[in-house]
Amino acid sequence: MELLETDLRDLGHVRAPEGFAERVLAAVGIAPWVNDSYAEVATSLGVVHVAWNTAGISAVRRAGGAREFERWFASRLGRPVRREAVPPERLARQVVGAIAGHDRRLRFDMSALRVFEQDVLRKTAEIPRGEVRSYAWVAREIGRPRAVRAVGTALANNPIPFLIPCHRVVRSDGALGQYSGGGPEVKRAILRHEGLDPGWLEILAGNGARFVGSRTTRVFCLPTCAHARRIKASNRVYLRSEHEAQGAGFRPCTRCRPIAG
Amino acid sequence: MAADRDEELTRALAVDLVRGFEAMVYAYQHRLYAFALSMSGEPMDAEEIAQDTFMRAHVALARYPGQRIVALKLSAWLHQIALNVFRNRARKRKLRVVPLDPDAPVADSAAGPERQALSRAALRELANLVSGLPEHQRAAVVLRCVQGMTYAEVADLLGQPEGTIKASVHRGLQTLKRRAGWLSEVS
Q: How many CB atoms lie within 10 A of CB B113?
């Protein structure tokens, strides 16, 4: 019975034939409203497809076939996208700059996403380059501490990878976790590209060291926090838990807010 | 489909019928197609039923005042229209058999569960099997098990007590299980 019910649910995930929505809209006299355009942009991570509209960047994806991108866009965001030969110069400059690590303020259009997904992505966009946070940290920061798995799902479905740095969210045990932009190896490569050593994170986690504290300031941080990296080796203390840290009289860093994850 | 998504859609429809309708078609095309396919068992019929459903919805929405649109329970309303379209057609004509490419995958892995989705041929066979159920059982099984509605929602939509729906779903699943077993033995 259970197998049958799973099969029936599969039947519910059947997709309408290609072009069905467009045929329906044509039948009632509605011309498709194409708001988003996309083009290829060459970045330091390779060539990507970037889609944009008047509100901001709506999607990014590693360049494969044009058709593949259009299909993916329609199924992820529920609307069509039009191909352009070249991207607007300013947009291309911003995207290249952002991926190369220059501080660029980008505008994103997340209007097709659920509120929860938007919260997760906005929070993720705050994680500085060269640092990582855990899924649990993101969940806690957006006020949904129990929704750790849902955070993982939202990030796995991030339509704007690379620019909204979902690669900077990793598992609490030091493992990198999944990556929507092309699997764990790509995630590792991007983090390394940003100046982080993923192997070091695994070693720390393997030893149970979750936080780094300073003997002089009595502040404890997440290991990749810029403040933590400034602590001299002789003053550096590795802490295994929030309990241990606070028991030893350390207070949490206000920059990385470590007890969120 | 999430209730907040429906609320956004009905609000959009009330403000701008054209753009709201477009968003609604993109949001519901797969869901209504899946419903029509499970009810009719035939891809060609499914597409026509789903398209008719949207066209009727369009006519109705154009007549409704904004307040009425905002108050719609969109998912139930669209399924209700689809069910009526299906019933009218079933009364009028016999089902056609249409050959189909047996290898092309039909379920979207991004939308579905992680395990391997059924092949197009297997889904087709399953839809056929479901469409062979007596109509009252079929509607209950499809709305509950394929479309994932709650018993309360199904009861509301079909205008029957929840207990009756539960019994129909139970009996429908029993029949399907029996016939599915018989099918796999034969093949």
A: 12
